[in-house]
From TrEMBL:
Residues binding NADP(+), per UniProt: 85-90, 138, 592-593, 597, 608-610, 657
EC code(s) of this entry: 1.1.1.42
Family, as annotated: Belongs to the monomeric-type IDH family.
Residues annotated to bind D-threo-isocitrate: 148, 555
Cofactor: Mg(2+); Mn(2+)
UniProt-recorded Gene Ontology molecular function terms: isocitrate dehydrogenase (NADP+) activity; metal ion binding
Site annotation Critical for catalysis: residues: 259, 422
Organism encoding this protein: Actinomyces ruminicola
Lineage: Bacteria, Bacillati, Actinomycetota, Actinomycetes, Actinomycetales
Binding-site residues for Mg(2+), renumbered to this chain: 352, 556, 560
PANTHER family given in the database record: ISOCITRATE DEHYDROGENASE (NADP(+)) (PTHR36999:SF1), ISOCITRATE DEHYDROGENASE [NADP] (PTHR36999)
Protein name, per record: Isocitrate dehydrogenase [NADP]
Keywords, ordered alphabetically: Glyoxylate bypass, Magnesium, Metal-binding, NADP, Oxidoreductase, Tricarboxylic acid cycle
């Protein structure tokens, strides 16, 4: 598999495929991967790489690089597949355009992104780029359901070294604002497909015109759940006007929490509504001028401000925006010192990271003066807004959760076979005219051609979407929940909302498939998400664990929410995806903080990214290699790595928060030392012990000098030669600055 940032992997499939991604995880890989390759080589375990970065995916889309993502997708069907997946950029449109511009500056012949394609060629280019946008990687690789939990060492460390938690007041004004009608939750409809076949999605215009085909042919499988829903643009706008007024009246910060990266059609459109609702006078007066200049609310305030200098009326528009900023409610700030608001960039505030961080901080977010204040958290769709409100209510009533004593809420998430649940990008549409959207049988399905399976009366500007969940994925999900309940003894709670059509359908399947499982002695329940949240918090406050068994969106949300409260970050969680054909996918944590860490590296040569998730994933991947290959040495490596990781946590060798301390590179050097010592001391494999005894000795001898060397480089700007596609030599020089350490590692 090719790699624009490192040497290509060998032609044969390696035992472990380590993904090359973006931003801070990609930079950390420059330092950590040579250590991994050196140690694993000694145990006859091969490690290759696959480039699934945003830059790599763009180049592959236009035939300028091998398509490593497609190759990995095929590999997931191999029972021996062992893949370590680091966080990658789920690109918003501004990020995609920035990456395209950088690659063109580097000499790659790429077309511009056509915002409004008018020719077949432009439509083809747009489709190629759109396939790269958003969460393009995860659906390809996640050919299994998710088992995500806090490892024992991480949980023990959090209890003995608790992270800070902001104090909650019963008088806090912080609350969630969400729609109570005409959103995705309230308009949802669902159907189970009896037999395999094909359906079409079309819009029948209200004016009697010819149907407009939105999706020509959508394959469906036997037993598959197909859902459809829409959000009313009119209702959304009315809700947003009310939310702005409420934040102003309560004198709290207005914060908007979406996921414009993953829901790459619906949430950017909703974000555009949010921006227009905050600046109504400006868009009423200058909306046409902005549209003609290609300055879209969906791209955020920063994009609009950046384009105003080129407009004759630019200063008038800038003044109008500033006036409305002063008249409206105070905004949550992404960066107070630079004046970056919640509305500047759609991908800056991502709900699954931003809401837990706010809750951990005592219900407060940052204001324009660099202080913190209560907030009105605007989550337009009500599907899961109640989960966050339930946590806020619990904290107001009982105070902040205590990491020293609280239990854990691991997750079993439904995501196999592209289980969408929240609507997929290729089946989400901005409705162009009043009419009726229909999902119609074209072939098979056990129903006559022309049968309308699902339909909605819609208006111009509404956001309509469909999603699919395959029966085999649901069966595997239920089985995995039973396996985890049996292994842990904790209750397993399916979070399913009886008010949602999709959840009612899934609940009926859960009950059917549970009946075929051995659940003797297990506590397995089905609760609506709000009740499940309350139960999980009640048990957590007593120090008890509760497994949350959820669909794909709540998998995303819960695997940030509870870990951030329990252990301070979701990056420290163990994320195992048992692939349905027997392979293993091991994910390494969340990348929401990655851009911030890159900025600090560029300014100060200090990378705060914590690779703990990579350490945990690698140990599990090595155990899988031992299982499928019979190489017992892989297990020895894994056990030694886990022991080294425990020591690293206990000795507080993770990256420090401030310049002058251990950063990512220093943490890797400590891990290498501890790992070598554990291998030298173990008795399961005498050859490995003999091999690593001198390595441990040499690393111990130079460790003090290496750590001093790694600290000495800090405090100065560095050059990487690119953000999305750094220059390999420059990136290596920054991330491997210790000649003494490199000499030992490269000689392994």
């Amino acid at each position: 598999m090719t790699d624009h940032n490192a040497n290509s992997a060998p032609a044969a499939t390696p035992d472990i495929v380590y993904t090359l991604t973006d931003e801070a995880p990609m930079l950390a890989t420059r330092s950590l991967l040579p250590i991994i390759k050196g140690f694993t080589r000694a145990a006859d375990v091969s490690v290759g790489t696959a480039d699934i970065s945003l830059a790599g995916r763009i180049l592959a889309a236009f035939g300028l690089a091998d398509d490593d993502l497609a190759r990995l997708g095929a590999l997931t069907q191999d029972p021996a597949a062992t893949i370590i997946k680091l966080p990658n950029v789920s690109a918003s449109l501004p990020q995609l355009k920035a990456a395209i511009a950088e690659l063109r500056d580097k000499g790659y012949e790429l077309p511009d992104y056509p915002d409004e394609p008018t020719t077949d060629a432009e439509r083809e280019v747009r489709a190629a780029y759109d396939a790269v946008k958003g969460s393009a990687v995860n659906p390809v690789l996640r050919e299994g359901n998710s088992d995500r939990r806090a490892p024992r060492a991480v949980k023990a460390y959090a209890r003995s070294h608790p992270h800070s938690m902001g104090a909650w007041s019963p008088d806090s004004k912080t609350r969630v604002a969400t729609m109570d009608a005409d959103d995705f939750r309230h308009n949802e409809r669902s159907v189970v497909i009896p037999e395999a076949g094909t359906v079409q999605i079309r819009l029948v215009p209200a004016d009697g015109g010819q149907p407009v085909v939105l999706r020509e042919a959508l394959p469906v499988t036997a037993g598959e759940v197909v859902d459809a829903t829409f959000m009313s643009a009119r209702a959304l706008d009315e809700f947003l006007v009310g939310a702005n007024a409420a934040a102003k009246a309560d004198d709290v910060l207005l914060s908007v929490h979406l996921k414009a990266t993953m829901m790459k059609v619906s949430d950017p459109l909703i974000f555009g509504h949010v921006v227009r609702a905050f600046f109504p006078m400006t868009f009423n007066a200058f909306g046409l001028v902005l549209a003609e200049a290609g300055l879209r609310a969906e791209d955020g305030l920063a994009s609009i401000l950046a384009g105003l200098d080129a407009l004759p009326e630019g200063e008038r528009i800038r003044a109008s925006l500033q006036e409305e900023l002063e008249l409206g409610p105070r905004l949550n700030m992404v960066d107070s010192t630079r004046g970056i608001t919640n509305l500047h960039v759609p991908s800056d505030v991502i709900i699954d990271a931003s809401m837990p961080a706010m809750i951990r901080a005592g219900g407060k977010l940052w204001d324009a003066d660099g202080g913190q204040d209560d907030t009105l958290a605007v989550i337009p769709d009500s599907s899961y807004a109640g989960v966050y409100q339930a946590v806020i209510d619990d904290c107001k009533a009982h105070g902040a959760l205590d990491p020293r004593t609280m239990g854990s809420v691991p997750n079993v998430g439904l995501m196999a076979r592209k289980a969408e649940e929240y609507g997929s990008h290729d089946k989400t549409f901005l409705i162009p005219a009043d009419g009726t959207v229909e999902v119609v049988v074209t072939q098979g399905t056990g129903r006559a051609a022309g049968t309308v399976l699902l339909s909605h009366a819609v208006e111009d500007g509404d956001i309509w979407r469909a999603c699919q969940t395959q029966d085999a994925a649901v069966r595997d999900w239920v089985h995995l929940a039973v396996v985890r309940a049996r292994a842990t003894g904790a209750p397993a709670v399916f979070w399913l909302d009886p008010e949602r059509a999709h959840d009612r359908t899934i609940a009926s399947l859960v009950e059917r498939y549970l009946a075929a499982e051995d659940t003797t002695g297990l506590d397995i329940r089905i609760l609506d998400p709000v009740a499940a949240t309350r139960l999980s918090l009640e048990r957590a406050r007593r120090g008890e664990d509760t497994i949350s068994v959820t669909g794909n969106v709540l998998r995303d949300y819960n695997t940030d929410l509870f870990p951030i409260l329990e252990v301070g970050t979701s990056a420290k969680m163990l994320s195992v995806v048992p692939l349905m054909n027997g392979g293993g996918l091991y994910e390494t944590g969340a990348g929401g903080s990655a851009p911030k860490h890159v900025r600090q590296l560029l300014e100060e040569d200090y990378l705060r990214w914590d690779s703990l998730g990579e350490f945990l994933a690698l140990a599990e991947a090595l155990r899988h290699v031992a299982q499928v290959s019979g190489n017992a040495r892989a297990t020895v490596l894994a056990d030694a790595l886990d022991a080294a990781t425990t020591t690293l946590l206990e000795e507080e060798r993770s990256p420090a928060r401030r310049l002058g301390g251990i950063d990512n590179r220093g943490s890797h050097a400590w891990l290498a030392l501890y790992w070598a010592r554990e291998l030298a001391a173990q008795t399961a494999d005498a050859d490995l012990a003999a091999r690593f005894a001198p390595v441990a000795e040499r690393l111990g001898e130079v460790n003090e000098a290496v750590q001093a060397e790694l600290v000495a480089v800090q405090g100065h700007p560095v050059e990487l030669g690119g953000y999305y596609l750094p220059d390999p030599a420059l990136a290596d020089a920054v991330m491997r600055p210790s000649a003494a350490l490199n000499a030992i590692i490269d000689a392994l």
